[in-house]
Amino acid sequence: MPRAFITGVTGQDGQHMAEFLHSKGYEVFGMVKGQNNPKEQIIREEFPYVNIVPGDLADLPSLVKALEVAQPDEVYNLAAISFVALSWNQAELTANLTGTGVLRMLEAVRMVGGQTDNKIRFYQASSSEMFGKVRQIPQDELTPFHPRSPYGCAKVFGHDITVNYRESYGLWACSGILFNHEGPRRGIEFVTRKVTNAAARIKLGVQDELVLGNLDAKRDWGYAGDYVKAMWMMLQQDEPDDFVIATGETHTIEELVELAFDVAGVSNWRSYVRQDPKFFRPAEVDLLIGDSTKAREKLGWVPEVDFAGLVRMMVENDLRLESRKARRDLTD
Ligand code: F7E
Question: For the segment 123-142, what is each residue's pLDDT rounded down to a tens digit?
Fold first, then answer.
């Protein structure tokens, strides 16, 4: 039975990854940080096959201990401060976890078995935020980086140090440059879920306004379930390499809102939306659109859910959750 170790198992991608690897017959280990972490309960209840291991990306000895317990064949480093907007408020923490945390993880992999004959395979979650003020359209593996946020800067370090450890120590390390990937498990702070949840709540009459920032930014949005499969495919290659994972389609936030309200059955979306400067970012990433030709050709990866399918999936999920909540409130 192959063994996999996931950091960030409590997040959207971690949950999808745990589910996917379990379905492939892996013994799954998930790192959970902190004392009394409320998200640990979700993992225990919904993913009972995950072996929970304590550890924190800020603490190298804890990472070494966690890997000694898990003895993994594959490590997926998905943990990070992942909310770009927060990274301006907590820039140092973001650098420490999203950036230097990768270095600690690589050191732990090196110490526990990355250089033995039976090499640990390592996946780093790199991000399209590294392209920032884009130098090329669409963006591929050779597009230069120009990050626009402390988060993007930290991800560039994480990416570069992964490549450097592969080149310096022969570590079996891959980096996946993933464009935005969403789904029903997405946190409410991210724009897709904020919009689909609001569309559902407005439809049900429990919310009357949606307050957003920049409606003109363009993103290449895919489905998280498709993207974790790409991560796994990268680690099944003969040689480690880096890949862009994207749909190749881009849409504005405005198009997202329009479609989500349409799926929810709410007409005249403009009358519900207000813009507030507090949701604008000090420096914006205006346009992301990825070219994943390399992944399609070398890995045979193709996204199965398109933008319209993704928005529908998320709105329908939110309609279900919110109507269940509304019914519960009525009976309380
Ligand atoms: O923002 C605009 C905002 O927070 C998308 C993370 O997974 O993907 C994600 O980063 C866009 C931005 O995601 C609101 O200004 C407008 O242009 O959903 P987001 P993100 O920043 O693109 C990358 C690939 C990652 O690696 C990250 O970890 O939407 N926007 N109004 C808004 N965004 C938010 N959150 N809230 C608004 O009210």
Answer: 999 999 999 999 999 999 99
